[in-house]
TrEMBL record:
It comes from the Bacteria. This is Branched-subunit amino acid ABC-type transport system permease component. It is a multi-pass membrane protein. The keyword Oxidoreductase does not apply. InterPro entries: ABC_transp_permease, BCAA_transport_permease. The keyword Transmembrane applies. One of its GO terms (molecular function) is transmembrane transporter activity. Keywords: Amino-acid transport, Cell membrane, Membrane, Transmembrane, Transmembrane helix, Transport. The chain crosses the membrane at residues 15-35, 42-61, 99-122, 189-209, 236-256, 268-297, 309-329. It comes from Rubricella aquisinus.
Length: 344
């Protein structure tokens, strides 16, 4: 029971990332009808926003501390971040909680990147075949990946969680189990709660605001909304920016779990496209549900008991694709797919 619960929580952790990326991907497809293979690069850019802000906060100068000496008896050089000199203890907290501050930093950056991507390139492919959209956005993803590689290097860059969230939580005690039965990393729980808040906020925005209702109407019947005198194109461009923000902040918060590297966007992209297809092209609820479902399935497939049952074969890397095949054979449009999506 303890192992099952632990794997279930691991699945929620993975599923949170899949759901957030797939949600942004589905927003773009549902509004603009574009298959965006550069979407994983947005996740990567968001992660490196956290790295950039941490480096800005950590920028320091050296001073001689006569009270401290090295092993030769010479006064030691001490590095002091500028934010600590300027802001004291608040400056220290800026460095300590740079991951959380990076969310604020990443929002305008991701809006700018998303709108630039849509206005500068993708708008010219709205009416082109999906194959053309895939090729051009995949090429854009490779370009962005190489730019990040040139700037930050090829090696992963660690970005630790705030010390307040380092360590583990005894989840078993919360559920009435014995102490230390089920212990889970605190930041992974934070990420899961963060994902729920973002998903809930997006759905509330689309359902209860005038802007969101117009966008949903445009997704269902773009021509009719345009005939009402509403500039739906500007609203859809704004939704591209929103999708970039969702994916970017997902990348920011994931940095303490997975050290950012230049190919992390591609690593998540293929999996999240499978999530979108399984959930149903154009279905936001389907993307979220499929994200958590496939994350949980992948986590359980990694259990040693499953590997032993399969005579030593490991299927955790392919289980998502196996589940996708089964679902698409029984439900060709996915779990919650809409008629007409990707069927022309």
């Amino acid at each position: 029971m303890e192992a099952v619960l632990l794997q279930f929580m691991n699945g929620l952790d993975k599923g949170s990332a899949y759901a957030l990326i797939a949600l942004g991907l589905t927003l773009i497809f549902g509004t603009l009808g574009v298959v965006n293979f550069a979407h994983g690069a947005l996740f990567m850019i968001g992660a490196f926003c956290a790295i950039v802000l941490n480096r800005i906060f950590s920028f320091s100068f050296e001073t001689i501390d006569p009270t401290r000496t090295d092993f030769l008896g010479n006064p030691m050089k001490v590095s002091t971040p500028y934010v600590e000199k300027w802001f004291g203890t608040f400056g220290t907290s800026l460095i300590e909680y740079s991951v959380l501050w990076s969310i604020i930093f990443a929002i305008p950056v991701m809006i700018a990147v998303g709108i630039a991507m849509e206005r500068g390139l993708i708008k010219y492919f709205y009416k082109r075949p999906h194959a053309d959209q895939i090729l051009v956005t995949f090429g854009l993803a490779i370009v962005l990946q190489e730019i990040i590689k040139q700037i930050f290097g090829a090696n992963p860059i660690p970005n630790p969680a705030p010390s307040s969230f380092v360590g583990s939580v005894d989840v078993g005690v919360w559920l009435g189990m014995a102490e230390f039965t089920v212990v889970y990393p605190m930041w992974r729980l934070v990420y899961f709660v963060f994902a729920l808040i973002v998903v809930g906020g997006v759905f509330a925005f689309l359902r209860y605001t005038t802007f969101g209702m117009v966008v949903r109407a445009g997704m269902a019947d773009r021509e009719t909304v345009g005939l009402l005198g509403i500039d739906i194109d500007k609203r859809f461009t704004a939704m591209f920016g929103l999708a970039a923000v969702i994916t970017g902040v997902a990348g920011v918060m994931y940095t303490p779990i997975l050290s950012p590297n230049y190919h992390m966007g591609m690593d998540f992209l293929v999996l999240c496209f499978v999530v979108v297809v399984v959930g149903g092209m154009g279905s936001l609820a389907g993307a979220v549900a499929a994200g958590f479902l496939l994350g949980i399935m992948q986590s359980f497939a990694a259990m040693s008991e499953v590997k032993d049952f399969l005579l030593g074969f490991s299927i955790d890397q392919v289980i998502i694709y196996l589940v996708a095949v089964v679902i698409l054979l029984t439900r060709p449009r996915g779990l919650m797919g809409r008629k007409g999506m990707m069927e022309e």
